[in-house]
Write the structure tokens for this entry.
Amino acid sequence: MSRSWQGGSTRAWRKLRARVLHRDGYRCRIELPGCTTVATHVHHTLGKAAGDDPAHLLAACAHCNLKTGQPTADPAPQPRTRW
């Protein structure tokens, strides 16, 4: 579990999450291949370190949110060569 969730979610985050899901109509806004379209997660487009500004939050289905990952923490793809 990440350090940011050690104590669980806060009341403020649950309220903000509900507002973002409602604003986006509970519909996934990322829509990657395999998307379920039903949003149950909220994705931080600039990463969690940028804060919880609703302008940088999107409703997302579990598949798309987990596939997208953390924008500021995931390493950049590295080219691989065949041995």
Summary: The chain is about 25% helix and 10% strand.
